[in-house]
Specification:
The structure is a homodimer. In chain A, helix 1 crosses helix 4 (71-80) and helix 18 crosses helix 22. Chain A is α/β, with parallel strands linked by helices. Chain A is elongated. In chain A, strands 8-7-9-10-12-11-17 form a 7-stranded mixed beta sheet, with helices on both faces. A 5-stranded parallel beta sheet of chain A has the order 1-2-3-5-4, sandwiched between helices. Chain A has 22 helices and 19 strands. In chain A, 37% of the residues lie in helices and 15% in strands. Chains A and B meet through helix 7, helix 8, helix 12, helix 15 and helix 16 of A and helix 7, helix 8, helix 12, helix 14 and helix 15 of B.
Chain lengths: 616, 616
């Protein structure tokens, strides 16, 4: 059999297997798989370099299905590569099966979870950046995109960054099957519309008939030869290609075929072709950059007033001097987040992502695919832009560190658009996350080090304004811990804050003390996981707790404390948080106006102490 | 004075005033204002149609500062238009001033809050869609963009949709001042790079010297004459133009000038020019579309098993038959969210936003600027993509209704990428929001009607699977309420759920009853605001509460209940929620596997009832 004939047969097998697995599952997306089957057949047979026995081989290419709903095709590809059995394939979408509705890294060959459209390509940019700038290995990154997902802005962030970084190791393959979920896409089969956009963004573009295996083969060869530019292959395909029941028909998205038997017959029946995908060769040693950044681990003394964002930058720069795997990204606010300190010390490991927060988080996810430890920073408020990417990063079992500066009304004059007031809630509601909120520079630095080893999504909220140094450089802080700063046997009330409100709580404790009210003060620097034991002890000891946070009342410190006390009786909690929409003003004015300064804490504590327990 | 000479003088005044206000505030972005001053001077003097005394006049043009940090320029523009005084201007960024760090609609002339980059243009697309397709009035939408924000993907979603919808009433003005916050942008002064992209996306593009007032004037005229296409004016400008201290210099972003006196002198000193901005003329009556959709208000009987997403669609279609101001948008999943029912009944008021969730929410915000009541729907998980737009919509004091379908593990086989497990937390942590989660079709329909009158961000979570009908069509449900479905004087425990878990709670109550344990059941369909009174009464009556939700443990129903009970003693709450990362499976299998089905509720309730109060 000629190569071309084999590729065509292989394409048919991928289609048949996509139909079979979806039929076994009773759900799935066979038609979206069938359109791209020839594209994947030629890729695996003649262009991909991958050792399925060694998925962590640094030389392997990376194949990302940005159109994750084409999972039947991906799993059929794995079967054709000999990586999985036919029985595996037919467990598709069953409880406990690793062959989920959309691919996730529970399978060793899957780099990242997809299924939220528009993410695979920006993540691929991150992997390709790792290949070019860090590993300096010749692996290629192939990303299969759907035409519908070209409507996602994140795709164009990826186009921009791939061209800007001259990622000629990246190839995007757009499966232009014309049909979305409910109707034709905006551009139908107008391949030029995609190619013109890509060219304007600085890419090399090739238009092909996505069912002409020889044309596809030539396109991949041309893509691999492109220099200084990424390539997009814009392929005209038919959804459901080869089965008359569904081919190029509307209303056939995301469901198994009614008559799979007939369709399989039309496609020439079941096959068991196996492809020996080419293994990667050559140097297997990724480049490792120097750890000589000339930065000492930072320390601050009791007289220093320092913003935690500054401490973040100092610590990150120092950490980069200890660990070659630590890299940093920023959304063009590095002089605000202080990631610029890392950029200056380790320019080869700093990635300027400009004002593209989705691409920034996606690139972080891509970099960790290649086992780097990315720290990505921007204003905390602007991580809301990338929430879907964070959500999916958790499904990808990614290890990424995120730092958001400029938390809360305490930023002052810039006003509400720049004030993060929902970030604690947003990041707490992420699987596998930790949420850290230091109150002091030494603590911030220690937690930066801890984040680098955290096996999930680590988020740190940093503050804009300088605050006093209350800890020593050798004090220990662990993820999941807390710090009790004031405590006595006579405590009548407990004050819990973090960041700027911890300092307000300390002031409040002094004021209360002057009134004869002993207050315990807890620094809840680890908002998730939360130190349940210390909180419960405080509840048992004092029976009254005031929480105070520069955040909306929902989902932040107050809710974390209440959650720790859910099954505890005999404790009353008063939550102080930002309840009105802020405007501009000086930080202290806004803390006062929104009732989260020491005055408000004192009043709330007095109230709790004066109202007899059990009165409500 | 010739027109050109006047425009130049006016530009200088806008610069001087930007410097003065930032100097008075001690912060702000004068240099980013100075680059665009000539663009705004010519616009207001010769092209804008706006009645500052009647900001709600439907004929008014709309001017949106997508680069919201150029607020000093915007406020200087208001002063030059005679809308505000010089004293007003100099309150910039002070506590209580309406002249905030970034513009918000506390000023009557501001349509929407900006300051998170990349939002003004997609919102402008929404306003322009209203003008073209709904109002059918000839007002124009002018959006001033920064060059840095062109890196945001949302900008390209806007380019795509503006061209697709042939919005020739929309003009984007890109102030290419070359410099971002820390460095040069990716494209510097390469105007072609922006123009080429815009042309590829289907726009008309004009490159100009942004300090040549005559060229600017011609460009605006050309833009207004463009037919069937939006126009972008790509203007080469200098940041800090006209002041030697800052002109085209790095490191001058976001700070007042060191020597404002000298700069003002260089700019020719203070001026008090006033422009009579042309008032709009002609027909002031927006078109109102027919309310004849032929859809009756839906009702379901006790034997119907119906998904709440289906009820959402039926109710929305019916509501559209009652109210001409109700419009719908969807992210190309209208057959999943059932907004397709609205689309069929009212095609002229349905907007297909394809897979561009940021643009979808932005368009909703733009449509409500023109006083429509937009309902935007997609899978609940994909609203994470638009969280920054929702956050900013709250600052815009926008009234929008959002509906997210496919909540939680109960969706089954599609897997975690499609399962919303953070949406309740995300939407609770939005200022002015209400979060609704109906459990029954009649309830869902009633709440759809309530959402339309809600003065903020209204979010409804709908379910994929069919559930029994438990309410009658005349039952009343109010935002902030709850429904007690089982209650007796002997209740020993309270079960609180919503959506699919409410039905599990009802099953659990039956099972507990058979064991002699009386359980109260509360349907918490309004997760925010939460019905504190009913929850507290249940706490007082039963002393033990089990909350159960198809959501991560953080920020959802459990936390809302705990928050209502913060100051209540003598109650123990056990939260059931999804704690592990789900895979695929059947809905019932996943509810069981993740401990949120009736079995888990029964076990938790037994535990609470058997453990004597006060034992912990």
């Amino acid at each position: 059999m000629s190569d071309s004939a084999f590729w065509r047969e292989l394409g048919q097998q991928l289609r048949v297997d996509s139909i079979r697995s979806s039929d076994a599952a009773g759900s799935g997306h066979p038609t979206s798989s069938m359109s791209a089957a020839d594209l994947i057949a030629v890729l695996m047979a003649n262009h991909l370099h991958y050792d399925f026995d060694q998925p962590k081989d640094p030389r392997n290419d990376h194949l990302i299905f940005s159109k994750g709903h084409a999972s039947p095709l991906y799993y059929s590809f794995l079967r054709a590569a000999g990586a999985i059995t036919d029985d595996d394939l037919l467990t598709f979408r069953q409880l406990g099966s690793k062959f989920e509705g959309h691919p996730t890294p529970v399978l060793p060959w899957v780099d990242v979870a997809t299924g939220s459209l528009g993410q695979g390509l920006p993540i691929g940019v991150g992997v390709a950046l790792a290949g070019k700038r860090l590993d300096r290995l010749p692996y290629r990154v192939w990303v299969l995109c759907g035409d519908s997902e070209m409507a996602e802005g994140s795709i164009w962030e990826a186009f921009e960054h791939a061209a800007y970084n001259k990622l000629d190791n990246l190839t995007a393959i757009i499966d232009v099957n014309r049909l979305g979920q409910t109707r034709q896409t905006m551009h139908g089969w107008d391949l030029d519309s995609y190619a013109d956009r890509a060219i304007a963004f600085g890419w090399h573009a090739i238009e092909v008939d996505g069912h002409d295996v020889d044309a596809i083969d030539r396109a991949y060869t041309e893509a691999a030869e492109a220099h200084d530019r990424p390539t997009v292959i814009v392929a005209r395909t038919k959804k459901g290609k080869g089965a008359s029941e569904v081919e190029d028909k509307e209303g056939k998205h995301g469901k198994p075929l009614s008559d799979p038997k007939k369709a399989i017959e039309e496609l020439g029946g079941e096959r068991s072709l196996t492809v020996s995908v080419a293994k990667p060769t050559g140097n297997a040693e990724p480049h490792r950059s120097s750890t000589d950044g000339g930065v000492k681990w930072p320390q601050w003394g009791p007289d220093d007033e320092v913003a935690t964002r500054r401490a973040y930058g100092d610590a990150l720069a120092a950490l980069g001097g200890e660990r070659a795997d630590v890299v940093a990204l920023d959304g063009e606010v590095s002089n605000s987040t202080f990631s610029e300190l890392f950029a200056k010390a380790h320019p080869d490991r700093y990635f300027e992502m400009f004002i593209a927060e989705q691409q920034m988080v996606a690139a972080a996810v891509g970099l960790q695919v290649r086992r780097y430890r990315p720290f990505a920073s921007t204003f905390a408020a602007f991580f809301t832009r990338a929430y879907d990417f964070v959500r999916m990063a958790a499904i990808s079992r990614a290890r990424i560190c995120l730092a958001g500066s400029h938390a809360g009304v305490a930023i002052g004059e810039d006003g509400p658009s720049q004030m993060a007031l929902e970030d604690l809630a947003m990041f707490r509601a992420v699987h596998s996350s930790t949420v850290l909120y230091p109150s002091d520079p030494n603590q911030a630095a220690t937690l930066v080090r801890a984040m680098a080893d955290y096996p999930g999504i680590a988020y740190m909220r940093t503050s804009r304004g300088a605050t006093p140094t209350i800890y020593g450089p050798d004090d220990r802080f662990e993820i999941g811990g807390s710090s009790v700063l004031r405590s006595s046997d006579d405590d009548q009330v407990t004050l819990i804050g973090a960041g700027v409100t911890l300092h307000e709580a300390l002031k409040a404790a002094d004021a209360l003390s002057a009134q004869g009210i002993a207050a315990r003060v807890i620094d809840l620097y680890s908002v998730k996981p939360v130190d349940e034991e210390t909180i419960r002890q405080a509840a048992a000891d004092t029976g009254a707790i005031v929480t105070v946070e520069d955040h909306w009342p929902e989902g932040g410190i107050g809710d974390a404390v209440l959650s720790a006390l859910a099954e505890v009786e005999a404790v009353r909690v008063h939550k102080l948080a930002v309840t009105g929409m802020p405007g501009s003003g000086k930080p202290a004015e806004l803390l006062h106006e929104f009732g989260i300064d020491s005055d408000a804490i004192v009043a709330a504590a007095q109230d709790l102490v004066r109202t007899p327990a059990g009165a409500n």
